Amino acid sequence: MTTTTPTGRPPVDLRSPAQLLAALPYLIGFRPANSVVLLGHRAPAGNRLGLVLRGDLPRREDRAHQARALAPRFTLAPHTGVTLVVVGGRRRPGSPPPHAGFVELLADALGEVGLPVLHAMWAADISEGAAWGCYADPDCGGELPDPRATVTAAVATGGGSVAFDSRAELESLLAPRSPEALARRAESLARLPSPRCLEVSEAASSIRAAFERQLRGSGPPTDEEAVSLANALSLPEIRDACLGMAVPPHSPAAREAERLWLTLVQELPAPERAEAAALLGYTAFMRGDGTFAGMALENALAAKPDHVLAGLLKTVLDQGMPPGQLLGLALTADPTGLSGFGLTPADFGEPGACLPLGVACGRSESAAEPG
Question: Left (φ > 0), alpha (ψ -120 to 50) or beta: where does 160 sit?
Answer without folding.
Answer: left
